[in-house]
């Protein structure tokens, strides 16, 4: 899958989470409904969560008109029209995309189980899945509150790095060349960093709070996507 709009085949959105006019933070699915195709995440998302889209050119809609439709979505922080007609869209709450992540059921690429080192992509991906499962289990045991998901809590750079990779899912799901093997490794590596530096469980005397519950939800999404031996 190309990371540049206009270089992939025209696509239609997959299962959207909602449509324009709904309340709550915007998600990639809701963007796709308005654009007519998934937008492509841009940059690292460390400072801001941005997407780019060539939908106005492909659909022959005046870019300013389509930009106005996107601006009407709640949770869109900024929409800019580039000189080439592409739209650049910044969303305020990137964590809202977790509401759309579902188990993919991707087949195991056939990576060997050994050696269990970071040079083996099979180990990287399966260990990432196992860590996501463990994070959810430990959080339950420690009483992390999970009743009310607050996506805005996922603002740590490590959380945002995982969300950046997950944001590629809508486009990859409709791509003729999704590149799943490379994608799974990238997602696993981002989650390994988050698991170590932005854990879903409290550290020391830290009380469990909304950020931990949000990271449990992030772990669930990672578990649903990564290849692993079990699904909880």
Determine the strand fraction and express it as a percent band.
5-15%
**pLDDT below 50 for ≥5 consecutive residues: which ranges?**
1-21
Helix coverage percent of residues? 25-40%
Strand order of the largest sheet: 1-2-4-3
How many H/I helical runs? 8
Q: What's the story with the biggest beta sheet?
A: 4 strands, antiparallel
SSE arrangement, N to C: HEEHHEEHHHHH
- Helix/strand-derived category reads alpha+beta
Quick one: overall form? Answer: globular
Radius of gyration: 18 Å
Mean pLDDT across all residues, rounded? 90
Would you report the number of β strands?
4
Distance between the termini: 29 Å
Provide the fold topology.
Elements: H1 28-35, E1 40-42, E2 49-53, H2 55-59, H3 63-71, E3 76-81, E4 87-91, H4 121-141, H5 157-166, H6 169-173, H7 180-197, H8 210-225
Antiparallel strand pairs: 1-2, 2-4, 3-4
Helix pairs in contact: 4-7, 4-8, 5-7, 5-8
């Amino acid at each position: 899958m190309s990371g540049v709009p206009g270089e992939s085949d025209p696509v239609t959105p997959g299962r959207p989470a909602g449509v324009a006019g709904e309340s709550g933070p915007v998600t990639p699915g809701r963007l796709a409904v308005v654009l007519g195709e998934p937008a492509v995440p841009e940059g690292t998302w460390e400072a801001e969560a941005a997407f780019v889209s060539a939908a106005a050119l492909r659909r022959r809609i005046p870019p300013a008109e389509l930009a106005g439709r996107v601006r009407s979505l709640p949770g869109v922080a900024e929409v800019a029209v580039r000189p080439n007609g592409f739209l650049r869209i910044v969303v305020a709450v990137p964590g809202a995309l977790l509401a759309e992540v579902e188990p993919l059921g991707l087949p195991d690429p056939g990576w060997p189980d050994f050696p269990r080192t970071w040079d083996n992509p099979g180990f990287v991906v399966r260990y990432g899945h196992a860590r996501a499962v463990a994070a959810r289990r430990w959080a339950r045991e420690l009483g992390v509150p999970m009743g009310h998901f607050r996506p805005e809590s996922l603002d740590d750079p490590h959380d945002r790095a995982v969300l950046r990779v997950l944001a590629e899912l809508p486009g990859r799901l409709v791509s003729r060349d999704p590149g799943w093997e490379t994608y799974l490794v990238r997602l696993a590596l981002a989650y390994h960093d988050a698991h170590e530096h932005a854990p879903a469980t409290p550290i020391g005397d830290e009380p469990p709070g909304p950020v931990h519950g949000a990271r449990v939800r992030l772990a669930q999404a990672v578990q649903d996507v990564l290849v692993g031996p079990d699904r909880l």
